[in-house]
Amino acid sequence: MFKVLKIILAALCLISAFVLGSQNPQLVQVNYIIASNTLPLAVIISICFLLGVLIGCFISFKLFSQLKWQNYRLKKQLAPEKDKKKLAANKDT
């Protein structure tokens, strides 16, 4: 089910990118600090979208890694307590 939703979402993104690209053929001048360039508006929108996706993936990966590391440390911290409880339960029986 999740895989189907991912495929549908990817298809919607591609369709919307195609529509944006076909509706925005105007040339836009982009001024950098040192130079300037003239690009189609669709290319600029695509570049900004990809940069946003990459930055979002980077931040999500960083947060996900921190949470996994925190989860690992907490599980490691709970492991000795579980062993003590098992030993205490075995002594009672």
Architecture blueprint of SSEs:
Layout: H1 2-23, E1 27-31, E2 36-40, H2 41-92
Antiparallel strand pairs: 1-2
Helix pairs in contact: 1-2
Question: Could you characterize what this model shows?
Answer:
This protein has one domain. 80% of the residues lie in helices and 11% in strands. The chain is mainly alpha-helical and 93 residues long. The protein has 2 helices and 2 strands; from the N terminus they run αββα. A two-stranded antiparallel sheet has the order 1-2. The two termini are 47 Å apart.
Summarize the structure.
This protein is mainly alpha-helical and 93 residues long. Helices cover 80% and strands 11% of the residues.
Descriptive keywords:
93 residues; mainly alpha; two-stranded antiparallel sheet; 80% helix; 11% strand
Per DSSP E runs of 2 or more residues, the count of β-strands stands at: 2
| Poorly predicted regions | none
> Cα distance, first to last residue?
47 Å
User: What does the average pLDDT come to?
Assistant: 83
The largest β sheet comes out as: 2 strands, antiparallel
Number of helices, counting only DSSP H or I runs of 4 residues or more = 2
Helix share bin: over 70%
Taken as a percent bin, the fraction of beta residues is 5-15%
Biggest sheet strand order reads 1-2
The run of helices and strands is HEEH
